[in-house]
Design a protein that fits this description.
The protein is an all-alpha fold and about 110 residues long. It is built from 3 helices and no strands. The chain has a domain at about 30-100. Helix content is about 55%, strand content about 0%. The longest helix is centred in the middle third of the chain and has 34 residues, at about 25-55.
Amino acid sequence: MEGSNRIDVNARLPLNNSNNLSPADKQAEEKEKELKKACANFESVLVYYLFKSMRQTIPAGGLLDKFPGKDTYTMMMDQKVAEEMAHRGDGLGIQKMLFNQLNRKPPKKGEGEF
């Protein structure tokens, strides 16, 4: 059947319509991505300090009491674990709450919070 309308099954469609966005929309989308990243980074710092505080409650002693570089190693490990926790999915949920709080649009004139 020559000349018939055929569907190209190998044709690829764009996954997002970022080409159709206005410059203002692209800028808003970019700011939103930056805010999400900042919220995730904040959560990772918060979790790191949580780990650090928890480690300070553990009494010194034990089999591997002190060896050179132990403090540096545990600090680096805590930082990496906190980073991984914050960047997987929604993390602990802190970043999502923070993002929602910071991303709120200010109320229009005449619209109050009450």
